[in-house]
Amino acid sequence: MSRAGARLRRPLAPAAHAPRDLFEARRLASTQWSTTNAMTELARVRFSIVTPSFNQARFIRRTIESVLGQQGDFDLEYLVVDGGSTDGTAAILEGFATRLQWISEPDRGQVDAINKGLERSTGDVVGWLNSDDVLLPGALRRAAEVFASHPEVEWVHGRCRIIDERDRRVRRGVEAYKHLRSRRYSFESLLTENFISQMTVFWRRSLLHELGYLDPQFPLAFDYELWLRFARRSAPVYIGQPQACFRWYEASKSGANFEAQFAENDAVAFSYATGQSSLLRRRRRRNSLFVAIYRVMAAGRRLESGVRQK
C-alpha cells in the first residue's frame, strides 16, 4: 500500500465558578449528586486525539500504544497525520489500521498537520499528542470525568512528567515547578510564563469552533498562543495526577530550539499583555533566567553524552 496516499485509511460562556482542579471537581460532582439527585447518568465523552508525525518511527509506536491503551467510560477517535515519512512510519501505522485513522502526504509542517487532523475529527473533546510523547494510564478517564461532571468546564490540563529517549524520568525539578505554578493558576501568571504542558491539554469542540484553530504564524509557540486565547475566555481545570510524558532530547523540536521558542513565547505574551509593562518586565527577567538554566542543562547533557561515548 502506498505511503503517500491522499485519503484517510478509514473515514477520517463559562459559568461564574468552575472547579480549579480535579479534586474540587470531584467534590462538586459529589455535592451536586447528593443534593439534587437529578442526574442519573453522566454524558459520555467522545475524545478526538490527533498525532502529527514526520519521520518518528523511533518513537511513534510507543505514542500510539499509550493512546489506544487508555481505558474508561468514554469513546475515542484517534487520527495520525503523517507528513510523508520515509523512515518506516507508514508500515507501523498500517499495523494499527483497524484501530485508528491515518494519512500520509506532504504538508506544511506541524501546525498544518494538527489543524488538518482537527478539521477531520468528530469528537466533542479534542487535543493532540506529538509523535514522541505519551499519555499515562488513566489520563483520558480523568479528563472525561471532569468534562462529563462539569459542562461549564471548557478545557483541562494536567501534571506532566519529562522523559528522555529511553523513557527515563528526567528534569524532575522542572516537573515540580510546573505543578506548583499550575495549582496557582491565574491569567496573569500564564502571561508571565507558559507552564501548561501541551500533551495534557484537552478542550471542548465549542472552543475550536468559536476561537479557531492553531495559528501557523507561530511555528514554535502556537500552543502557548492557543492557551492564551482559551485563558482570556475561561480558566482551565488542572488535573494534579500525572497525565502524560513529554519526551525531551537534544534532537527534539523543543530541545534543539529552546532559545528561539522562548523568544517566540515572548512575542505571543506581549500581544496579549498590552499595557501591562510591569508584568512584561517580570517576564523578561524570568525568561533570561530560564534560558541560562536551559543552556547549563543542555551543556551538561552534551558532556554526559560525550563521556558515555568514550
Task: Give a verbal description of the structure.
This protein has 310 residues and is an alpha/beta fold. It has one domain (22-250): Spore Coat Polysaccharide Biosynthesis Protein SpsA, Chain A. It has helices at residues 22-36, 60-68, 89-94, 110-120, 139-149, 172-183, 187-192, 205-211, 222-231, 253-256, 258-272, 277-309, and strands at residues 45-53, 74-82, 101-104, 125-128, 134-135, 155-163, 202-204, 237-247. It has an eight-stranded mixed β-sheet with strand order 3-2-1-4-7-6-8-5, with helices on both faces. The model is unreliable at 1-17 and 26-40 (pLDDT under 50).
Topology:
Blueprint: H1 22-36, E1 45-53, H2 60-68, E2 74-82, H3 89-94, E3 101-104, H4 110-120, E4 125-128, E5 134-135, H5 139-149, E6 155-163, H6 172-183, H7 187-192, E7 202-204, H8 205-211, H9 222-231, E8 237-247, H10 253-256, H11 258-272, H12 277-309
Parallel strand pairs: 1-2, 1-4, 2-3, 6-8
Antiparallel strand pairs: 4-7, 5-8, 6-7
Strand order of the largest sheet: 3-2-1-4-7-6-8-5
Strand count, sense and barrel status of the largest sheet are: 8 strands, mixed
CATH architecture: Alpha-Beta Complex
Tell me the number of structural domains: 1
CATH homolog superfamily: Spore Coat Polysaccharide Biosynthesis Protein SpsA, Chain A
